[in-house]
Structures are given as C-alpha cells and as structure tokens.
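Continuing from the previous page of notes. For each protein in this section, the sequence appears first, followed by its structure tokens. Read the first protein now.
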Amino acid sequence: MTARSHLTLDRQWGQKADALFNVFAGPIVMGPTSYAQMLSAFGFAIGPSKEIVIVGATDGDRTSALTKEIYSRFMPDKVVLFYLESEAAVMEKISPYTADQRMVNGRATVYVCENHVCKLPVTDASKLKELLDVPSGGIK
C-alpha cells in the first residue's frame, strides 16, 4: 500500500506500488544500500501502518500540542490526515473510514488507527503519547 491508498482505501494505488516494487526487485537485491528510500517505502507498504486522524481547528492550541506530539518522533509507518468537521462530506469522500470521527466535547481529537482499526479517541497530548509509544502491531 501507499500513503495514498491508506488514506483513500483505493486499492489501485497499492497495486501501482506493487508493480513498481516488482520492477525494481532485481536491482534492489543486487545493491540494497542504493535503494534506501525504496526499501523504506516497501516497509511501509507491507505494514503494519498507522493512520492518524486529527480532528479540530487548524489554529487551536490543543490541536498544536497534539500535532507536536505526533511529529516529535520518527514514525515512518504513519500517515496523518487533518480532518476539518466543516468539510466532513469532502473528507469522508476522500477517506471513507473517517465517517464517524469527530471532535470529542468540542476539543481537538486524535484517532490513532492501525490498518484502519482505530483505538479510542484522545484529546490530551499525554494520552496521545501513550498510544504512539506502542509499536505497530502492539497492543495497548
């Protein structure tokens, strides 16, 4: 899968990535150190991955704190989607799995999902940190 297929659930993007990996498979095997980015993309494609959805105002302090928590760590297996409730129809068309994701009690909210299965939403940066510290495939 690619980041685009993770966000849209459109399998054609994953199929295109698979075709690309197949084209480069021989050269990668012969010289893997020359294809670091391709191998990183391949690792992302085979998963598991995290989809992180931030629901909230783009300029809010809480949104900023949550966003900083996400980007304060190296997580090559993630895609991040900023969800504006005012654009719900467009957001759900792009990313169908976000249909039920809303702010909780009017506060910026983050949904941490793994392969489109989401944990309970969080509105606090310390709770988000706990969720993000669990490795992909881990249980918390």
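Done with the first. The second protein uses the same format. Note its length before scrolling.
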Amino acid sequence: MARKPDGSAATANRTQVRGSSLLLAGQAFGTTLNMVTQVLIVRALSKTEYGAFAYALSILTLAEVVTAFGLRGGISRVLPLYEERDDLARAAGTLALAFGVVVSIGTVVVLGVIAFSGEIAGGLPSEAEAPLLLSILIVLAPVQAIGSLLDATFAVFGLPRTIVMRRNVWMPLMRLAVVAVLLLTGGSAVLLAAGYLVTGALGLVVFGAALIPVLTHRAIWEYLRPGRLILPVKRVFTFSFPLLTNDLQSGLLAAAGGLLLGLLATSADVAEYRAVLPVAMVMIYVRISFGYLFTPMASRMIERGENDALSSLYWQTTAWTTVLAYPLVLTAAGLAGPVTVLLFGERYEDAAPVLAILAVSGFLTAATGPNNDVLVVFRRVRYVIVTNLCIAVLAIALTIALIPPFGAVGAAMAATLSQLVLTAAWQTGIARRTTVHAIDRRYLRVHAAVLGVSAVYAAISLAGPPLAVRILLTVAACLAVLWLSRGQLVIGDTFPELRRLPLVGRLAGRG
C-alpha cells in the first residue's frame, strides 16, 4: 500500500480530490445530458445537415481558443498569487484585463468570420445553409470564452458548486430544451444554432451576476474601477501566452479532424467523426474536472515553497484521473461497435473504429494527469510553447497524410498519434524542468494495474465472446483496477463517510 502523504500535503490532496470529485460528478451529469442532446441532434438532422453543423462547431472550437487567449489559465495562476500577497489592486486588475481582452478579441473574431463565412463554408453543400450556421455559431466563441473565465475565477475562490451549476446543469439543460423545441417543431440546424447562442448568452448574465457578491466579499469589487486597479499586463500574459498555445494545440487536436475532413473528404465523413467525438472526449472531461482546482492550489504551493506537497498533489490527482477514466475508455474502445449503433443508429456503424481510436487518445490525456499545468505553474514558458507548436505541425501533417487513404479513421489515428507524442514530451519536461517527480514509485501500481488488466481483457476479447460476456468482462476489469489501486487512492481518508457503508467500506478502508 502506498505511503500516505503527511501534513499539509495530505490536506491539500483531500481538498483537491473532494472538490474535483464534485466537479466530476457534475461533469458526469452534464455529460449525460449532453450525450442525450448529441444523440437527438444526430438522429433529428440529415447526415448532410449534421455534417455542416459539425463543421461549424469545429471552427467554433478553434475560434473560442483564439478568443480566450489562454487567459482562463492566466487567472488560475496569477489571481491566487496576488490573493496570497493581499495585493487586491492587482487581483482586480487581473480580472479586468482578462475579461477586457477576451471581449476585444472576440469582437474581431466574430466580425472576421461573419465577413468570410461564405468562403470558409463554401465547400459544403448549399442546402445545409453552412454560411448562415457558421455566422450564428461563431458568436458563441466570445460567449463561451467569457464563461470559461467565470469558471476559472470561481475555481480560484474555491466555489466548485457554482462551476457545476453553470457548466454542468444550466448549459446542458438549456441545450436539451433547445433540441426538444427542434424535434417538436421540425426545425433546422439554423434554429438549433440560434438556440445555442441565446441560452449561452443568458447563462453569462445569470452567472456573471453571481460573481459580484463573491468579489464584494473578497474586497476585490471596490478595486474594480479606474484609479484603483493595477493592470499586471506582463505577468498575466507571461502565463497566458503559453496557455494559449496549450489551448490551440488541444483545440487543434479536437477540431483538425473535422475541419480537414470537410476540406479533403465529404460532409458524411465529418458527420461520422464529429458524432463520436463527444463520446471519446468524456475521458478528457475527467482531466479537466481535476484541473480546475489543481492549478490554483499548485500556484499557492509554489508561492509557499511547498515542492514536496506539490509533487504529491500531482501524483494523487493523476491516480484518480486514471482510475476514473478507465471504465470510460474500456467501454468506448472495447464496445465501440455496440455503443455507436446504440447511440447513433446503424447509419453510423462505420464510425465505430473512429470512436475506439479517439477513446485511446482521450485516455492518454487523463492517465497522465495535469502534466502541462505543472509546466505552466513552474513558468517553463519556452518549453511549453515550442512543444505545442511542434505538436500542432505534427497533427496537421499526420491528418493531411492519413485522411485521403483512411477518411475519418485516418483523422482519428492522427489525433491519437499526436497525443501520444505530446504525452511523452510533457512527462519529459516534468522530469527535467520541475521539482515534481517524473515517476513516483508509490503510484506505479495504478498504471501497472491498468496495463495488466487491459492485457487480459484484450486477450479474452480476441476470442470473440458474445456481447453479454464482453459487457460482464468490462465491468469485471473496471472493478479489478479499482480494487488493485485502492491503496494509492487513499479512498477512506479522502471520503471517510464511505467507511460506514457496507461493502464499499471495505474498499475505502476502515482506518
């Protein structure tokens, strides 16, 4: 069994895992609603129309990254630093600078894309109304970017419940309501896009108002006025620019397949790729949920010189993200065919290999934890930027090379290969450029359990057992990994209330 971290490290680990688990539970609820919404959209629209909608969403993904300019991560790193120093003028300036820059860039992006919407969407069928779809959805870029800044601010102030309400309750429920209207009225993708925009903007109003009393309580609100706030431009952009390249690289890996399929293949290929992408992205949501609280906590630890506690926090976080993502990748990859047909119908049966390959890419992200966040909080700016640029070039080159012979499967292969190289680069950077241990022997058992159980699972699956047996095998494999990793997760210390439950108490540990 792993040696337990002591003192402040154990407290930080508990706070991180409990708060992140709340975010993950909210993410699970939101993802379920989003999955239902996705399935209904795919079934309601024709393959051509959905292909055009998905193509516009791919462009929206990249536009949102450009608009956000890495400032969500900048807030997560810089705002807690100034709070630790009780420098409220610069804390207020950090918020004013971040929100102001996003609004400015967002305005330019929206106007630019609308002006050239016909040229950008010109390769898709005219009956899909692609230019109009793109013109509506692109306005979501600044809306969603501002929403991510709100989430980052709530995370710094330790308010995971508010993040859950905005990201995982409000937005999924509102979008599901829009799809319900679409189904009842027999509307088109244009109605769907307009509904997404209206609900997103309304959410900003509601949760933007919720931030005001928080800032008032923290005594930051009174500094948010000319003459009192101080804009820490250099420090904010020092952290934000490498995070922008992080976001661009992540957005490119997610969107490049859909964009280049739209240019090099058909709208049907785009539809297949984008239909299964949200399912494969579920693993990444595990990593994102744990990352919200990790960065502010890591920033405070560096400010206090608590390097050993930070290393423990990183590996404890990674253990949890690995174990929690494992059932998802095993279901998506091991049962790709049945899952694809169940969700999207037989006309999307050919997308099953795409789902299986993308699921592996998502799991690589979750199984290595917040490694790029570690490099950012240690201010390894040049390494982060160069790595992201190299991976972006690699991803584009691989996607262009693999789409002509393999179509949507080739786009998925390119994303997974790029993610594998990126993961190796991040871990190398941690080993050579930070005080965090590249490998912590206390947590090797978690990854060894995943590899061993997966090897047995694959060997049995190759024999071609019936679907019922494969489902039982999947459940057994997930439980085996959880049982073998229970010591490293320190479940009983993190969630002591579980010790009182029958059966579960034995897994959590009695003390």
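What the second structure shows: The chain has a mean pLDDT of 82. The radius of gyration is 23 Å. We return to this in next week's lecture.
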